[in-house]
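Shift notes (night). Ran Two-component sensor histidine kinase while the centrifuge was going.
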Amino acid sequence: MAHRTEQRLAEELDSITAAREIAGRFLKDAGYGGAHDDVLLVVSELVTNALLHGSGEPLFRMSASATTVRVEVGDSAAKLPVPREPGPRDGWGLQVIQRVCSSWGASPHEGGKVVWCELVSSPAPATTKAGVELA
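Came back to this:
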């Protein structure tokens, strides 16, 4: 992936908005052709989880091409996330990640963990020369 960014975020809820703003500019600069709103939703979920369930200042990374984007958020807590049954007060974050992303995971690293996900833009439907979609 040709474009990359990395930013250390403050350990405060305003960092969710900051990460979304960084991601929005980054997606435009990278020329990512997929749904930007999906990526911004994923960024919000991963940063929120790092702030609520992790510890320390989150490290926010993105890499992208025209067709693929990878979002990573690291923190200094060692406990890896586990999807749970969603409820009215919490538990929806990883459910959203699983539905929106093509893949996701969490990896321990020295001093904590990194939670990552990848989104792939849908290719445009194939068309004939007359512009009719092929099924």
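The mean pLDDT is 88. Residues 36-53 form the longest helix (18 residues).
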